[in-house]
Design brief:
Oligomer: heterodimer
Number of helices of chain B: 3
Largest interface: A-B, 40 and 33 residues
Number of strands of chain B: 18
Number of strands of chain A: 24
Shape of chain B: globular
Shape of chain A: globular
Order of helices and strands of chain B: HEEEEEEHEEHEEEEEEEEEE
Distance between the termini of chain A: 14 Å
Strand content of chain A: 25-35%
Chain lengths: 418, 330
């Protein structure tokens, strides 16, 4: 995060100054509304609709300094990644996934929600064709007939191999266009405001047993880490491709700007996928989001009526996906000049912060004063909301609070941060 | 064992059903089944009496390698106890009389059927006594019945079963043509913790084991674990009705590969907006009715139907657990 110099805003002079600035920069602000902070949002793997994936291993880094042996998919020659590469294809594409297995046990890939998956190579497993250990291959092919949010995961010893990390997201974009979630005008979302939120749990003791060839006793499953896009909080706040998380390339921060009927009318799209073995009640704290689809199917009434609904807690069960649209409304319109908060802010000597995402003022886009010595994570007066699993025991890193399945919603002032 | 494919009809209705099949065969052969409008065969409610017996028994799992003490319902006064209990199958509108005899259980046993218009009995009857329950099964749907006494112990012991109330229109799950089906499967989901059941059997429950210690090791569909679970056989294009009953104490999300299923009802209630899913989630005690149209296949194909919480082990070994296959022929 960038450090920010504290700014003092003197109301009188600032009012004139800001007013003049606004007149000059309004056109610039309008153009900037489509520029979210860099390094956020859903990242599609390169290539497609034919993908070459390897099943490999790697070590995952946790915020409490742990290093956990993981399995996962990757589309390059290096270690596996968690989650696997997000595969993005278009409706109607023939998708082919060529799997090479560098792990010491047979693996496979299944595509829940896809019909007509054919296989070639490999040998028959319980669910699908399997690639043999240590270099075996198998291929999977299907037509991406229905747009939506899906997952792919190992179909071999699923309770063990998916827990080890063999999972990823599959996005099928509708014929209507890449900025629609489904073939329905109501599913249009703001460009560059597309977010994958993929859940998973990790039992490090079972991973340790697998690493040391001690077998896997599913009865002992006891997760200690909970991840969004492969990262426990607060690592999920780091941007995509953060260099200190080389095998966990996806961040999870959701970023929006306030709704405006003219300049910012489109919502963000949230794609939820639960690749774990536990259900997770995801809570966009302080907000509702509108759930529009489930398991890759638009929610509609029997005659095509809008079947979407608003939730402030969405229970995502293992293997399920949901799509939700999200907009943030500046309902109060607090403004230091025209509509100040009607309370007296305590003096700095009476304020205490331990690491601050707070800007020092309640006004969107107007950072205020913070006590000397405060670590400042706020960039330009944006708001942060803590979005999280509402199961308290999942908001931990190995039983220490302040971790787990927690994320930030970031609401930037109109125009974004400079 | 407990057949997954249900074609249970009381004798008086067999003629009607046979008539349906005879009329429909030319349409069914080699093509999609006739639309509901073409087979408006009705079945009528009629008084039904079911004599249930609650008794101790033994459950054999995993090819007989595991033996667990159970308590179960049965329609035979001499047993054996069944897990799950016998399916109670009536036409909507039927007056139902159920007698429940506590054959040899050391505590009271009763009958509770959530969603059914009957007073819940949490007192029950002692060893040797019989309770009588009289109610009208007015609404079509899929229901769970179980003992309402000391539930946290008696349900894990096995005192549960399914009740099906059928629409008066044959071949429909509800009084809605959209719920027409060709094949039907009942999946009663549950778990077994051998140590828990052993403690109850030995009378040490409450000291050596309590409900807090419930830790299932076996995950059942209709009283079996994979690979002994019955597959569901169907044909390309068939509409298969899957009736889920979660008689366990855990949530179970049943993923299916290769297709979506449409959830039409939950807890015996037809949903105003059915929705498609490949991962229906059943909370403990819930029932759901889903219908899936079987994919077109060139050769006999298997589509896995499995628990996505990962309950796919029999004790320490896998594959096992709460898993079966949809076997679809061309």
């Amino acid at each position: 995060m960038k450090r920010l110099l504290r700014r003092k805003i003197k109301l009188g002079v600032a009012g004139l100054f800001v007013g003049a600035l606004l007149v000059m920069v309004l056109p610039v602000i309008a153009a900037r509304l489509q520029a979210p902070p860099s390094g956020l949002g859903l990242v599609c793997a390169a290539g497609g609709p034919t993908f070459n994936l390897r099943a490999a291993d790697m070590r995952m880094i946790t915020p409490d300094g742990n290093s956990i042996y993981m399995w996962g998919f990757t589309d390059d020659a290096g270690p596996a990644q968690a989650p696997g590469p997000t595969l993005c294809v278009n409706e109607g594409d023939t998708v082919t996934v060529n799997l090479t297995n560098d792990l010491p046990l047979p693996v496979s890939i299944v595509f829940p929600g896809q019909a007509g998956v054919s296989t070639s190579g490999g040998s028959p497993g319980l669910f699908t064709a399997e690639a043999a250990a240590s270099g075996g291959t198998a291929s999977y092919s299907f037509v991406a007939a229905e747009p939506g949010t899906y997952l792919y995961e190992s179909g071999t010893d699923t309770h063990m191999q998916v827990q080890m990390g063999l999972y990823g997201a599959l996005i099928i974009r509708p014929a209507m266009g890449a900025n629609y979630a489904y073939n329905d005008a109501s599913t249009q979302f703001a460009p560059q405001r597309e977010y994958l939120l993929m859940f998973h749990e990790i039992d490090p003791l079972l991973h340790d047993a697998v690493e040391h060839g001690e077998g896997y006793d599913a009865r002992l499953f006891h997760p200690r880490y909970y991840t969004i896009n492969g990262r426990p909080f607060p690592d999920d706040l780091a941007p995509n491709d953060a260099p200190w998380l080389p095998d966990q390339p996806y961040g999870a921060v959701v970023s929006v700007e306030p709704y405006d009927a003219t300049t910012n009318p489109l919502p963000a799209l949230l794609r939820f996928v639960n690749a774990g073995l536990d259900s997770h009640p995801f809570h966009p704290h302080g907000n509702h989001h509108r759930v529009i689809a489930h398991d890759g199917r638009l929610l509609q009434g029997p005659n095509g009526e809008d079947g979407s609904y608003e939730k402030f807690t969405l229970l995502v069960n293992p293997g399920q996906t949901f799509d939700a649209l999200f907009q943030w409304y500046d309902l109060e319109g607090w403004n230091s000049l025209t509509n100040p908060v009607p309370v007296t802010v305590p003096g700095l000597q009476n304020q205490v912060f331990e690491g601050s995402w707070y800007s020092g003022s309640p006004y969107l886009g107007e950072p205020g004063d913070l006590p000397v010595g405060t670590t400042i994570n706020n960039e330009c007066g944006e708001y942060y909301f803590m979005w999280h699993s509402h199961e308290g025991q999942e908001m931990v890193n190995w039983d220490e609070g302040g971790g787990g399945l927690v994320d930030w919603l970031r609401v930037d002032p109109p125009g974004g941060c400079p | 064992m407990h057949a997954k494919m249900i074609k249970k009809l009381s004798p008086g209705l067999v003629v009607a059903v046979v008539a349906v099949l005879m009329i429909s065969v030319p349409v069914l052969a080699g093509s999609k089944p006739a639309s509901p409008a073409a087979r408006p065969v009705l079945q009528v409610p009629a008084p039904v009496t079911v004599d249930l017996y609650a008794m101790q028994g033994t459950l054999l799992l995993d090819g007989g390698s595991v033996s667990v003490p159970i308590w179960g319902f049965t329609t035979s006064a001499t047993g054996p106890a069944a897990l799950p209990g016998p399916v109670i199958d009536v036409v909507a509108g039927s007056p139902v009389t159920i007698t429940l005899t506590n054959v040899d259980l050391p505590e009271n046993v009763s009958l509770v059927i959530p969603g059914m218009d009957m007073a819940p009995d949490t007192t029950g009857v002692a060893l040797g006594d019989t309770a009588t329950y009289i109610f009208t099964a007015s609404e079509p749907g899929t229901y769970l019945y179980y003992s309402g006494v000391d539930e946290q112990a008696q349900m894990p012991m096995g005192l549960y079963g399914a009740m099906i109330v059928r629409s008066t229109t044959v071949g429909q799950a509800y009084d809605d043509a959209a719920t027409a089906y060709d094949e039907e499967a009942l999946l009663v989901l549950s778990e077994i913790d051998p140590d828990f059941n052993e403690a109850i059997f030995l009378g040490t429950y409450g000291t050596s084991q309590t409900a807090f210690d419930y830790a299932p090791e076996y995950w059942l569909i209709n009283g079996e674990v994979y690979p002994d679970t019955d597959p569901i056989a169907a044909t390309s294009g068939d509409r298969v009705l899957v009736r889920y009953v979660n008689a366990g104490s855990r949530e179970h999300t049943m993923m299916v590969l290769g297709m979506h299923m449409r959830t039409y009802a939950a807890d015996g209630f037809l949903l105003p907006s059915p929705f498609d899913t490949f991962s229906p989630a059943l909370a403990a005690g819930q029932t759901q009715d889903l219908i899936a149209t079987m994919p077109t296949v060139a050769t006999a194909s298997e589509f896995p139907l499995f628990n996505r919480e990962g309950y796919l082990n029999n004790g320490q070994t896998s594959p096992g657990g709460m898993m079966t296959m949809l076997q679809v022929g061309p």
